[in-house]
Design brief:
There is one protein chain. This protein has 142 residues and is an alpha/beta fold. It has helices at 6-9, 24-36, 54-64, 85-94, 102-105, 123-135, and strands at residues 14-16, 45-47, 75-77, 110-111, 113-115, 139-140. α3 (54-64) links the parallel β2 and β3 (75-77). α3 (54-64) packs parallel to α4 and α4 runs parallel beside α6 (123-135). Residues 1-20 are annotated as: Disordered. It holds the Pfam family LRR_6. Keywords: GTPase activation, Leucine-rich repeat, Repeat.
């Protein structure tokens, strides 16, 4: 993953790793780096479209993209990444799912757009997203 130094990301309002052939292992590494380099006070947009992050990569990213670590994150584009229900469940659980306390749910970024189009999300993943939004565990406008 091209994130090698804190200075590469800490002052950025936008990170674009679209079409970068990132694997699940790369997603794990990116999540670890974003956590290590946080809080990322200026990051507003994260584009990860058309990679192969899969459930494993998204699971680690969820914790890195908490409201505490990315307080201004408004747009998260995960379109076409081979994310299945397990990845969506990990994403919503990582942000504080429906069963969590209000304090735990505050981990969710306050997103304007969460784009999960063209992934492999089944019924369980769709229900997890619905439950997270309904419970206030996921704040998202679109």
């Amino acid at each position: 993953v091209a994130v090698s130094k804190k200075s590469d990301v800490s002052e950025q309002s936008e990170l674009d790793y679209s079409h970068s052939e990132l694997s699940g292992a790369d997603g794990i590494e990116l999540g670890q780096k974003l956590t290590e380099y946080g809080p990322l006070e200026k990051l507003k947009h994260l584009y990860l479209e058309r990679n192969m992050l899969s459930d494993d990569g998204v699971s680690t990213l969820a914790g890195a993209l908490s409201h505490r670590n990315t307080p201004k994150l408004n747009r998260l584009i995960l379109r076409n990444n081979r994310i299945g229900s397990a990845g969506v469940i990990a994403l919503t659980d990582g942000w504080g799912g429906a069963d969590e306390s209000k304090a735990e749910r505050s981990r969710s970024p306050h997103l304007g757009i969460l784009d999960l189009e063209d992934n492999w999300i089944g019924d369980e993943g769709a229900l997890a997203l619905y439950a997270a939004v309904e419970s206030g565990g996921l704040f998202c406008n679109e």
